[in-house]
């Protein structure tokens, strides 16, 4: 049984593609679990406002005609935010994709998300500690069943939740609080600042995590910071970078 002190939302996104800055959500599948074990399910189709490439539709089976009459993200943003507030977040490869993209969609409508005290659980990182990491193979290993509806958002999140429950049941080392659980697979010496993972913090200093200035101080490459602000990086990355620059200007 999960050791949680507040609700946790397992979620998965189906999208128009894999570019955090440019692509959009077409489906949100989510399961919220309360500390007492109660579950609440959401399965929402979203009009992405841009065409869904054939390659993306071939993966998740959602086509333009399926979402043309569905709400835009900006129309559901406030209600979705209320549903997600005061919750921790979990998913499969969610640290690298689902959370950054969801944060970007919120940023487009002027909402900063997630909250600062949110704990992120990435099931693929836990699984890499102990086994192979493909969702279908992982699901079959733990449940003995084949994942037949892969790339449907709700089916994927149900499989992810099932894997997490089996992980906890089978591995005593994982039966800890969510905060302690993340320490098992995160680098304790650094903290990622933005969801695009372009900037990290170490010993109170901010460093670049990509490009020609990787592992160099942001404070020592201000021209590069301006270049990032002028280019097509994610809104979330730019928001945090502006905060860092404002902090540096005060020092």
How do the strands and helices of this protein lay out in sequence?
Blueprint: E1 8-15, E2 25-33, E3 39-45, H1 54-60, H2 64-67, H3 73-84, E4 88-91, H4 94-108, E5 120-122, H5 123-130, H6 135-143, H7 153-170, H8 178-182, E6 191-192, E7 199-202, E8 205-208, H9 222-230, H10 235-250
Parallel strand pairs: 1-4, 4-5
Antiparallel strand pairs: 1-2, 2-3, 6-7, 7-8
CATH topology term of the largest domain: Nucleotidyltransferase, domain 5
Q: What does the largest sheet look like?
A: 5 strands, mixed
State the fourth-level CATH superfamily of the largest domain: Ribonuclease H-like superfamily/Ribonuclease H
CATH class of the largest domain: Alpha Beta
Order of helices and strands: EEEHHHEHEHHHHEEEHH
Number of helices: 10
Q: Give the overall shape.
A: globular
Distance between the termini: 47 Å
Tell me, rounded to a whole number, the average pLDDT. Answer: 93
Whole-number radius of gyration? 19 Å
Query: Going across the major beta sheet, what is the strand order?
Result: 3-2-1-4-5
Task: Please summarize what this structure is.
This protein has 251 residues and is an alpha/beta fold. It has ten helices and eight strands.
